[in-house]
Amino acid sequence: MADGGFREAVEVCGFADLGYIGLPYTWDNRQQGRSNVKVRLDRGLANAKFLNLFQSVKVWHVQTTQSDHCCLVVEGLKGSNSRNHKRRAFQYENMWRRDPSYRQVVNSVCYNSDRPSTLNQLSAQLGSISSSLSSWEKNSFGSVKKEMSLLRSELESIRRSSLHSGPSRRERFLMSKISELLSREEIMMKQRSRIAWLQEGDRNTAFFHAKARERAQSNRILALKKEDGSIVTSQEALETEAMDFYSKLFTRQEDLDPGPILNCVQEKVTGHMNESLMKPFTAEEVRHEGESLRNHAETWFQRRLCLSSNEVCHICFLFNQS
Amino acid sequence: MKLLCLNCQGLEQSEAVREVRSLCELNVPWVVFLSETGFFSDRVDGLVRMLGMEGCFGMGSRGRGGGLALLWSREVIVKVGSYDKLHVDATVRAVLSQSEEWRFMGFYGESRRELRHRSWDLFKLLSFPKRSPVDMRR
Fold first, then answer.
1. Most exposed residue of A173, A241, A280, A305, measured as fewest CB within 10 angstroms of its CB?
2. Helices A309-321 + A283-292 axis angle, to 10
3. From its phi and psi, is residue A229 left (phi > 0), alpha (psi between -120 and 50) or beta?
């Protein structure tokens, strides 16, 4: 609804729209033809505290017949029964770089193995980096939340015992530790929320949390429609359906003849151009491109994986060869 | 935990009540919030029985349109805080897990555009106490 007052009120209250599953409107004036109006008038809103009570909160638009409005069914699911805990796919966390031991972990893998000479070896090396990072993360970061609550309770007990004096050394230490954890949490949630316009360091963790949650909600696949029109919802069926779909999509179709289509396309690339396009990259070219892409792939590899620019060049060559 | 919210546009017709009942039977909600019940008086006892719920709170329409009803099952203990003809604000606690307590705000937007800002002001006012609201609009 184009109502600034509502949006402003929602923002002031710190509410997040719970979204919906089902048809995109909640009110239908049931008029015929062009005078028909369908809008989303009813919605579920909740603040972060409420969302934290549940593992997932979903809103269904349930169709009704006696009223022009949909029925909203809000369901809050607690932990275990909502989804089977699968091992999370490896994901690089921006906060890792803040830990001094991060470099050591990456280096220990890189220096203990030979320089990769094929893409397979490179992928294997990246794989071993990610697995050692995963176990390193578990040991040195653990559960930020759990650590945070432990630190908070310790801080509380320390402060209780020093009601009439200034902060002790231990208290200062705890405070800095908590604030480091907060920064880490913020960096993590910011990365998840994909919001680039707020600066790290603003301590907007709750906001990033809410945004990340919104993203996770909208990214979750609850059901897939199969080619024959039937709908699958179970986790395993979803997985096999997705696998089937993409392996079919990316498999070469043997009986396909591109001739008729190519006949309609004007030839733009001459034989000479094609020859120069097919030429392998030279180290000079890669370096030159690397200059202009300083903020992109090259620096990503260098900063994250502590690689030298020569090694980046080498990786580019490997991609070129395959 | 399930909540069910519906703008029923009048519950005088028995078909309308039956539909709400079937929705309740299907979803087994803990809390049901109905707006535009069209009930003139505050009494919603009959509705509680028909929907198989445990407790209720009604706000009569005092005229054409309007009317709110909050109903809940035996799964929860509900304390109604504030209410008027546009909202019901309640604290809901699960019987089985006493730690699970949250706040439900059933909100029915002011239909007259020129008065709508009142709705949003109320909205902001209600959200100030530091509990945790969920709410349904319209």
1. A280
2. 120
3. left
Q: Which chain A positions have a beta carbon within 8 Å of B125's beta carbon? A: none
Residue pLDDT, tens place only, A193-219: 665 555 555 556 667 777 777 777 777
What is the edge-to-edge ordering of all strands in the sheet holding A44-47?
A: A15-17, A44-47, B133-136, B101-107, B87-94, B76-84
- Under the banding of pLDDT at 50, 70 and 90, the label for residue A221 is confident
C-alpha to C-alpha distance for A123 and A125, rounded to whole angstroms: 5
CA angle (A100, A103, A108) in 5-degree steps:
130
Among chain B residues, the shortest Cα distance to A70 is held by B6
Q: How confident is the model at residue A253, as a pLDDT? A: 74
Instruction: Find the farthest-apart pair of alpha carbons in chain A and give their distance in angstroms, rounded.
Output: 88
Chain B hits for A64, Cβ within 8 Å: 6, 19, 23
Q: Using an 8 Å Cβ cutoff, are B95 and B66 in contact?
A: no
Distance CA B67, CA B48 (A): 15
- For residue A83, the model assigns a pLDDT of 47
Residue spans per domain, chain B: 3-136
How far apart are alpha carbons B120 and A4 in whole angstroms? 10
Task: Render the burial of A87-105: b for 16+ CB within 10 Å, e for the rest.
Answer: eeeeeebebbeebeebeeb
pLDDT digits (tens, 9 = 90+) for A18-32: 988 877 888 888 777
- Please provide the size of chain A in residues: 322
Q: Is the pLDDT of residue A1 over 50?
A: no
On whether any CB of chain A is under 8 Å from the CB of B92, the answer is no
- Looking up tokens 């509705």 gives B47
Helix or strand holding residue B68 (H, E): strand B68-72
Q: Which residues contact A55 (CB under 8 A, 6 or more apart)?
A: A77, A78, A79, A82, A83
Q: Are A290 and A310 in contact (CB under 8 A)?
A: no
* Burial of A16 from C-beta contacts in 10 A (0-12 / 13-18 / 19+): buried
- Tell the burial category of A247 from Cβ atoms under 10 Å away from its Cβ (0-12, 13-18, 19+): exposed
CATH number 3.60.10.10 given to B3-136: yes
